[in-house]
Amino acid sequence: MKRLWRGAVVAGCYVLSLYGIVGGVAAAILPARGATAVALAGAVMLFAWVAHIVMSVNWVLDRRLGRFLPIGGTAAGLFGLLYWPLSGLLREQSPAWDALRFLGVEALLVLPCLLLAIHLVRFHLDRPARRVNGPLAA
Description:
Helix 1 runs antiparallel to helix 3 (36-60), helix 3 runs antiparallel to helix 4 and helix 4 (68-92) packs antiparallel against helix 5. The chain has helices at 2-16, 18-29, 36-60, 68-92, 96-109, 111-125. It has one domain (2-125). The radius of gyration is 18 Å and the shape is elongated. The protein is mostly helical and 138 residues long.
């Protein structure tokens, strides 16, 4: 029953965040010609989504991963969220308010998956408590 509930949570988060996911993957797959920085940012964002999917599947199966994927995926996801607003701010010298507004809209588009990612990272980084054998064991 736990797997079914977790699977439903993951599916719901992905459906609600689909618009943001498609936009991020499209930026990764269809970079602008001659824009190496955009292609690199797209690859990092693609890694973040792959890490999210792998963490989600392993959460549904109740298996904990090592530290690389949760930490690397978090770093890549934060980079992906901040890249577009900051690049627009630096390139076009637009007001900081525009960058914050863009970051807010971008975060709202993937909010369900963002909240799930926080839980997934916590799940995968927390190690189960060690069992103590002996007279003090509970």
